[in-house]
Hints:
It is a single chain. This protein has 367 residues and is an alpha/beta fold. It folds into two domains: 22-235, P-loop containing nucleotide triphosphate hydrolases (Rossmann fold), CATH 3.40.50.300; 238-305, Alpha-Beta Plaits. 29% of the residues lie in helices and 22% in strands. It contains eleven helices and 13 strands. The chain has helices at 60-67, 110-121, 126-134, 150-162, 180-195, 207-210, 231-237, 249-258, 279-289, 303-311, 347-353, and strands at 22-31, 34-44, 49-53, 75-80, 95-98, 168-172, 199-204, 216-221, 224-230, 241-246, 264-266, 272-275, 293-299. Strands 5-6-7-3-8-9 form a six-stranded mixed beta sheet, with helices on both faces. β11 (264-266) and β12 (272-275) form a beta hairpin. The model is unreliable at 1-13 and 316-367 (pLDDT under 50). The structure holds adenosine-5'-triphosphate and magnesium ion. Adenosine-5'-triphosphate (ATP) is lined by residues 31, 34, 36, 54, 56-62, 205. Keywords: ATP-binding, Nucleotide-binding, Transport. It holds the Pfam family ABC_tran. Belongs to the ABC transporter superfamily.
Amino acid sequence: MPAIKFTGPGGARMQHDGSGRIFVQNLSKHFGPVAAVQNLSFEVRPGSVTGFLGPNGAGKTTTLRMLLGLVTPSAGVATINGRPYQQLGNPAQVVGAVLENEGFHPKRTARNHLKVYAAAIGAPDNRVEEVLGLVGLSSAADRRAGGFSLGMRQRLALATALLGNPQVLVLDEPANGLDPEGIVWLRNFLRAYAREGRTVLVSSHLLSEVEQTIDQVVIISHGVTRYYGPLDQLRSSQQSRVLVQAADANALVKALQEAGFTQVEPTPDGRVAVVGATRQQIGDLVAKSGIAVYGIEEERADLEKLFFQLTSPQYPGAQYSGAPRQPYGQPPQQGGWGGPPPPGYPPQQQYQQAPPQQGHGGWGGQG
Length: 367
Ligand SMILES: Nc1ncnc2c1ncn2[C@@H]1O[C@H](COP(=O)(O)OP(=O)(O)OP(=O)(O)O)[C@@H](O)[C@H]1O
Ligand SMILES: [Mg+2]
């Protein structure tokens, strides 16, 4: 995406570091007795799409609203480019955001809506046509927003967020209301945006909805971090199993143990599950031992199951929620199959290594 020249106030010099980084550190928010967010820490770097995941009421929107200066934190900090949102100078050029329930004037056309916002942030008029094209709304530009479907409203909200050609995108549940084609479109759009060296933070209550879009993931539940790290690491923490249906399960288990497979267990449907084996290894073994088998099936690691486990109230992590120095991404170990993931990396160190620099300026320098 080409850099756009702006004439708006504060467009040229800014006090942020231009890094495109989002930092959330020890962030908390209480609404009266409700601890919506508790001691949350994570970092989002440019060039990646980060999923911000948690079930309904987990505190995602509250966190994003704090990041965008719409809610005052009870404790902790949330910064973009090393600065709280309010100190960004011309924030539309640094961060574009779509939050829940974006309101549009129902009688205004999509194009006019965007023109009003473009004028407010000092973006040139031709940017309106560009963003309409980017979100696939060009042909609906003269229709009134009041008649838009939920998916079209999502696209218009995204177009509004893109007006400032921002370095950072923050989207709260952007896939809501999109049809399958729209979800694929959004995925490609966000990945391309990140590939340009920009930063994308996208929330969802469904891991499956964003699984193919995101590189790293912050999973929260009840306002507390459950996992923070690369999605691949979460995936690889789930060991796959080979499920074997044998004529004589006992003979198979004995042969497996003799061959050195230690994690062997029965499944409820009468099969034998072997952790850490390949189908080929099992096939060779049963051929050699002369054991009759009726099926050898590899069971893929189930990320969604792990997500439910990490966010369920029964999860032991909840016991130490709110502890002052909780190592995020390090839920207590549960042994065996389907246990929690290995730790993600702690962002605190990176924060200390890279304090915000003054007067670097240059919004959109990554574009
Ligand atoms: N303005 C508010 N006043 C009181 N409580 C609030 C307020 N905003 C949020 N909460 C509470 O904070 C908690 C977190 O809410 P939040 O909207 O951040 O969750 P969420 O993860 O975005 O959920 P969802 O997936 O449903 O959008 C909830 O218990 C919610 O009721
Ligand atoms: Mg929400």
